[in-house]
User: Fold Maleylpyruvate isomerase family mycothiol-dependent enzyme from Streptomyces johnsoniae.
Amino acid sequence: MTVHPSLQPSIDAWTQSIEAISELVSSLVDGEWNRPTECPGWSVRDVVSHVIGGECEALGDPRPIHTLPRDLYHVTDETTRYLEVQVDVRRHHTGPEMTSELEYTIIRRSRQLRNERRKPDDVISHPLHGKTSLAHFLDLRVFNVWTAEQDLRRALRRPGNLDTPAAHIARDELLRRLPKVIAEDAGAPKKSAVVFDVNGPVEFLRTVRVDENGNGTVESSPSLGPIVTFTTDWETFSRLASGRVRARRVADKLKVEGDAELAERIVTGFPMAH
Assistant:
């Protein structure tokens, strides 16, 4: 038995992106670990801690027993509280401690993935994602790692890897979340369509259609009369759709046509993705 062939592209994408993170942080000096990122309350060190914690949980390691300080303003609900434990427990780790734990975690997780014998549609349970297929869980890990890689690259001013296999998996995950953001959260009218026209290293045109029951779906066919059209570049889309930046901060890179009020509800409704 070997790894199911349909899982291999996700494993390869994960490997490339997490090794890029390891390379990015391997030569950081003390002050660089403390640089702020676009994740509220999180430094470069904290984002790396988040990646390590996510992979340790995927490995089945027990969660740290740790009490969070009460004054963390960015911890606002059960999800952020859950994520913060793996971050706060490493807040005082040195750079060498961080890089060595990251490298060791990558070795362990790579070994686990090489020996993966489960099928893509086998169901697994996760405290944040609920029940999901193994294939989708692996894609979520790719999405998490690539998004963290980009958080780190922006904080360290080392841009790159916007068009890797992991970036394409991240695109698919962000698109999968659009119907909820547009149809449910922003309340787009029934029988309407919202178009995203994205250019750059990852280029796509997608329409979110809301049917007569208020349910949203993503399609690759264009819409003749969209209620809103967003035109932007891939990096700006990924930052907006993962809740990293608000529309007003990237207004020069985002063209909005159509219903201004609905557009505002959409761009302010993107949740922080981890």
